[in-house]
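Researcher: I'd like a structural prediction for the single chain below. Treat it as a standalone chain; there are no partners to consider.
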Amino acid sequence: MNYEPSTMNSKSILLTGGTGLIGITLTRQLLALGYQVSHLSRKAGKDMQVKTFLWDVAKGEIDARCIDDVDIVIHLAGAGIADSRWTDDRKKEIIESRTRSIGLIYHLLHTKKHKINSIISASAIGYYSDRDDELLTENSPPNTDFMAQCCVDWEAAVDEAETLNLRIVKFRTGVVLNNGGALKQMALPVKLYVGSPLGSGKQWIPWIHWQDVVDMYMLAIENESFAGVYNMVAPNPVTNKQLTQAIAQQLQKPLWAPKVPAFIIKLLLGEMSTIVLGSTRVSAQKIEDAGFSFKYPEIETALKEIYG
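Model: Treating it as a single chain, here is the predicted structure.
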């Protein structure tokens, strides 16, 4: 079945990370369908349709009114994984921006009357991290590197909702393809005629089109029997080389530059190089079995839509 949203809704949704790429798109969709949407943010919002409540995760401060009349919390907040080098302080910030933030909300829920029944949270395919050609399902064990530890801690923090008897949905999100983010960075060398696969080029990229991401969140919002952990990836993963070729084809640019050797990437990025050199082949079977139908299951049609 294709996900078809219902037309008018009176439910109220609170988003953390509502000003990120996914948060903005999801907010737009929710408003169009008649939901009431509010954001938790570090600074005042600009959208008149969205009420913004302030919080400061590092200081442990949150506007207690943010949960008033809210039905569902969607937790997307977290410091950018690849925004700067992984120093010890940065790693701590990456993890705590995800774990302490949801902890602040749970503390409120324990101490104040509310009607929230569901927590829908992002996680990431970093849970599995670098696993060569192994096909990874939701039952696969986590890896042991920093990326995996971050996701394990993140999911554990979200699971505290069990003590509040809330429905929990966690999406282990792959590389989201849209006009910004990872795709923009991957496409830039191709546009400049110096595009080439990274490392061996054989590493698997678990990608997903932004529209399928939004539709998956909508499915979790609207279907109250939907719960548990799901891989948020398209059903047809591609290698780094295949993705680079697909981008070049879409942009009608030649690929002539030699592969970028792994050791150069490791020199430039250090431990963070696992983001581009790691191979994570992830199964979408569970979400498909739950009735979700992808609008963009193939990389070619996904890129065609994005580049118009």
